[in-house]
Design goal:
Length: about 180
């Protein structure tokens, strides 16, 4: 199939927003998708929560207000890039359903991807050792343990990363975005 993702009918780019718990697989999937799309010649950019917090959102914490500010900043930049035809991949916990709804509804061609794995699984993965700290009570406001995560009720794509491989996740993402085999 011819790739039409980068310039859909309105001539703008699009935003693919990965939301989910820490360790669910957002960065893994978003960066693999970025590489795949780039190899197809698509103008693609990844706004990853960790990198954003080192730069654009440096100094913000994890209160609801700071998380919402972070998410709105990411959405603002995503919108600017998308306006110029870029496919923007966002990887951020973005735990609040209302805020996700607000920012996604203002973005061109938004796709909400729920990167989902149960708390037991992400705790077991504990990629950064943060769950250990949070469960020990040493990390207040840690999403899923001592802070809320409001799962999307009707995501455009729901990937259970404890049930499918990274490769299968990428296959489903590409198919959903119109890059099916
Ligand atoms: N309290 C608390 N809660 C959640 N996450 C925490 C916290 N403290 C630090 N971290 C690390 O920060 C990363 C999440 O940043 P995000 O910008 O994606 O979060 S948010 O969208 O503003 O909620 C997150 O990265 P990921 O693991 O990639 O999701 C964590 O590594
Ligand atoms: N199907 C899968 N999809 C994505 N990641 C997976 C999957 N299965 C196992 N993993 C692993 O889970 C971890 C997810 O970490 P990461 O991508 O940093 O999560 P997040 O960005 O959501 O915090 C990685 O070590 C990754 O290899």
């Amino acid at each position: 199939m011819t790739a039409t993702l980068n310039r859909p009918e309105t001539g703008t780019g699009r935003v693919v927003w990965f939301t989910g718990l820490s360790g669910a697989g957002k960065s893994t999937l978003a960066s693999a998708l970025r590489d795949d799309l780039a190899a197809r010649g698509v103008a693609v950019e990844l706004l990853d929560g960790d990198a954003v917090r080192e730069n654009l959102s440096k100094g913000l914490g994890f209160s609801r207000e700071d998380r919402d500010t972070n998410v709105r900043r990411i959405a603002f930049v995503a919108g600017l890039l998308a306006k110029h035809g870029v496919t923007v991949l966002v990887s951020a916990i973005s735990p609040y359903a209302d805020t996700r709804r607000e920012v996604l509804s203002a973005l061109p061609h938004p796709t909400e991807v729920f990167v989902d794995a149960p708390l037991e699984v992400v705790t077991e993965r504990d990629v950064k050792g943060l769950y250990l700290k949070a469960l020990a009570g040493d990390l207040p406001h840690f999403t899923g343990v001592s802070d809320p995560y409001e799962a999307p009720e009707t995501p455009d794509l729901h990937l259970r990363t404890d049930q499918i491989s990274v490769e299968e996740g990428i296959r489903q993402l590409l198919a959903h975005l119109g890059y099916g085999a």
